[in-house]
Amino acid sequence: MIPTKGYAAASATSPLRPFEFKRRDPKEHDVVIDIKYCGICHSDIHMVRSEWHQTKYPIVPGHEIAGIVKSIGSKVTKFKVGDHVGVGCFVDSCRRCENCKNHLEQYCLQGLILTYNSVEADGKTITQGGYSNNIVVDENYVLRIPNSLPLDQAAPLMCAGITLYSPLRHWQAGSKKNVGIIGLGGLGHMGVQIAAALGAKVTVFSHTDKKRDDALKLGATDFISTQDKTVFQKHAKQFDLIINTVSAPIDMDAYLGLLKLDGTFVAVGLPEKPLSISPGSLITMRRSYAGSVIGSIKENQEMLDFCAKHKLAPIVEVITPDQINEAYERVVKSDVRYRFVIDVQNI
Ligand code: NAP
Ligand code: ZN
Ligand code: ZN
Asked: DSSP code of 9?
């Protein structure tokens, strides 16, 4: 077993503290990764605080992992020692179901093995995430980070990047498309950059006016503060696609009214409580309400190469592990520009 140092929460109300545990010995197809950086996703906070009511403690969160290959199993062909690699939200899947076979592992019918808070393929070990100094992952679930992307900036692409790339591609954001992104946080600020690079006209909807300049610099053509409720009438029936990244409840009917005929509203934010919709908001313009979760390994790799090609990267604030709890408070208050990334190499 490989000794590992990390940061874990012991309960929904306790802060994250130093925690030592062990990773499995690498098998033939495993890659041992020295983790250098791990992003703080709002999902980590939802999970640590048991807001989705499924958390197993102690929990070492973290699924925006960037590091360097330390060693490889005897049958590994995709990676070599020293490669820059990433690990996202899942570390295995059944590999046999229809969705796995179609490169859509994120929708695995047997259940995905998430990077943390899941049960490993051995049926007993609880997976622990990237707020730690190493991880052992099957090569088929490891991503290659292009050398032009610095590891601290690459880390948040493993979740924030792919979670927006996947729906933007699926619903064909591109030239002549009017795309709205609700919430300029970790996910949202990657969504703006990717949608703009795909050629779409991008509008950011934000709950204050504070992020206007940043949104425009990131590639948005328009920025709308929703403090002024008249914006919902002013921009009614204008958008082809709206992606909601907000971690809190929003007025769904107001936003649905912004969609054109046949427009689609995609949920990616996962607030603790259900959101209500009046059917009339969908019926009147044949609108669709959809959802999307992260992306597949193939799509993840495509997204990393796309970001490298278009020189897109998250704006990060690198912190030390002892600042994690303070960072959580700041994320919840939307006081982060735009992703905290933990320097875990000297944990
Ligand atoms: P984040 O960095 O905290 O960003 C969320 C943004 O939502 C904030 O920056 C803020 O943007 C807006 N917001 C926050 N509180 C609000 C409130 N009370 N009212 C209105 N707007 C508010 O979070 P994130 O890491 O991007 O994650 C966002 C959500 O996506 C979380 O729920 C997370 O669990 C979920 N998620 C889903 C997937 C998936 O696969 N579907 C993957 C990763 C994360 P403004 O200041 O611009 O309004
Ligand atoms: Zn995430
Ligand atoms: Zn499967």
From this structure: B
Cα 89 to ligand 2 centre (Å): 7
- CA dihedral sign, ordered 141, 146, 152, 153: negative
Distance, in Å, from the CA atom of 194 to the CA atom of 309, rounded to the nearest integer, reads: 11
Cβ(182)–Cβ(207) below 8 Å = no
**72 by DSSP, 3-state: which?**
strand
User: Which residues share a beta bridge with 31?
Assistant: 72, 137
Ligand 1, pocket-test mutation among 89, 168, 187, 227, most atoms within 8 A of CB: 187
The arithmetic mean of pLDDT across residues 92-111, rounded, is: 97
Rounded mean pLDDT of 231-245?
A: 98
Token representation of residue 176: 């002549």
Regarding the beta carbon of 268 and ligand 1, being less than 6 Å apart is answered yes
- In this prediction the pTM is 0.97
The DSSP element (H or E) to which 101 belongs, if any, is helix 98-101
What is the distance in A from the centroid of ligand 3 to the CA of 331?
33
CA distance 241 to 243: 7
Which residues contact residue 127 at a Cβ distance below 8 angstroms, ignoring those fewer than 6 apart?
Answer: 91, 113, 114, 115, 116, 117, 118, 119, 120
For the chain, the average pLDDT equals 97
DSSP-based three-state secondary structure for 153 = helix
Q: What is the mean pLDDT of residues 137-149?
A: 98
Return d(Cα 338, Cα 329) in angstroms, integer: 14
What is the length of the chain? 347
259 near 286, Cβ under 8 Å? no
CA 216 – CA 199 distance, rounded (Å): 15
pLDDT of residue 111: 87
Q: For residue 127, give the DSSP letter.
A: P
Q: What is the DSSP letter of 141?
A: G
Return the structure tokens found at 347. 């944990």
